[in-house]
Amino acid sequence: MTSPAPVVLVFLDTAFPEGRTADASKPQLLVTDQGATRGDGIFETMLATGGTVRKIQAHLDRLAGSAEALDLEIPSGEAWRRAIAAALGGHRSQHPPADASGEELVVKLVVTRGVEGASSPTAWVQVSAAGTLARHQRETGLDVILLDRGYDSDVAERAPWLLLGAKTLSYAVNMAALRHARKQGADDVIFISSDGRVLEGPTSTVLLAHVETSDDGTAVKRLITPQLDSGILPGTSQGALFTAAKAAGWELGYGPLEPQDLLDADAVWLISSVRLLAPVNHIDGKAIGTPSLQKELTAELNGLFSGIQ
Questions:
Q1: Which of residues 162 and 217 earns the better pLDDT score?
Q2: Is the pTM value of this prediction over 0.70?
Q3: Among 39, 68, 93, 149, which residue's beta carbon has the most beta carbons within 10 A?
Q4: Are strands 251-254 and 188-192 parallel, antiparallel or unpaired?
Q5: Is residue 139 classed exposed, middle or buried when 0-12, 13-18 and 19+ CB atoms within 10 A define those classes?
Q6: Which residues of 269-284 are buried (b: 16+ CB within 10 A; e: fewer)?
Q7: pLDDT tier, 1 (very low <50, low <70, confident <90, very high otherwise)
Q8: What is the mean pLDDT of the chain?
Q9: CATH node for 7-130
Q10: What's the pLDDT band for 4 if we cut at 50, 70, 90?
Q11: Is-contact 169 40, C-beta < 8 A?
Q12: Burial readout 206-240 (b: 16 or more C-beta within 10 A, e: otherwise)
C-alpha cells in the first residue's frame, strides 16, 4: 500500500494573521462540520509552478462569487494570500524540491459553513505535490464520452438555488460521472444538457478550435467554448487562455454548441487549472480532428498558456 502524498495544511484563523499550521496526518475537522455532513461549502484548486500560484486573483474572485451564491461569509482575499504563502513556504521547507523551477504543487482553498450552530465558517489551505496523471493526460490526450447532465441549458437562470455556476463541495455526481466513464474505458466526460447543448467536463472546461483559410491564404484560427450562461462554471483557465489567444490573433466564440460541433472541430480540449490543456483524441469512440493539426494547435496554445501567471 502506497503512503499518501505529503500535505501541508494551514487554517485561516483570526487569532493567527498568517494562518494556523496544522498536522495533516491527524484529524482536524469536526464530524459536525457541515462541509462533511452536507457538502455545504466551496473550494478552488490552483496550480503553483516554481513556487508561484497561477491565476491567483481569478481564483479568489471565483471563490468570492461562489460564496455569494451560497450566502457564505469567507475570509478576505488578503487573508487567503497570507495563508497560501504560509502553506507554500511550509511545503518547501518540509519537502525541498530537487528542481524548484519544474515543481508543480496543487493548492486547494476550502471553506465550509462550519460546525452545526457555529457563527463562522471553517476555512483552510492545503498544498501537496501534483500527481502524475494530470501531466500524462495533457501530454497524451484523452478519450471522452458524452453524458446527459439531466438539466436543460436554461435551468441555471430558472433555478439559481441549484448553484450550477458555483464551485461547491457537492461533487458526488461529478465523481460518479468519471467513474462511469472509466468503466466504459474512457478517461473523462463532457456533459450535455437535456436540450442537447454542450456544457462542461466534471472538472474542466470544454474548448474547440476551427482553422480556415482566408481569401489571401492566411490561416484564421477560432477558439470556441460553450456559453457561460448555460449553467456551467466559468473557467479561470479558459478565461486566461482566451485573453492570451485574442492577443495572439485568434478569433473567439461562445457557443451555443451541440455534440456535432465537437465532432466537426479541428481540435477539442478539456482545460483546467491543474491538468492544464489536455487534447481530446476520441469522443464516444470517434476520432477528433487531424492528429498533426491538433498537435500543432495544442503546442501553440500551450505556449500562450505557459506565460500566464
A1: 162
A2: yes
A3: 149
A4: unpaired
A5: exposed
A6: bbbbbbbbbbbbbbbe
A7: very low
A8: 92
A9: 3.30.470.10
A10: low
A11: yes
A12: bbbbbbeeeeeeeeebbbbbbbbebbbbbbbbbeb
Measured CA to CA, the distance from residue 131 to residue 3 in angstroms comes to 13
Kindly state the cell numbers that stand for 3: 503512503
Architecture (CATH level 2) of domain 136-306: Alpha-Beta Barrel (3.20)
Residue corresponding to grid cell 482575499? 77
C-alpha separations of 53 from 5, 19, 43, 88 in Å: 19, 17, 16, 9
| Class of residue 303 by CB neighbours under 10 A (exposed 0-12, middle 13-18, buried 19+) | exposed
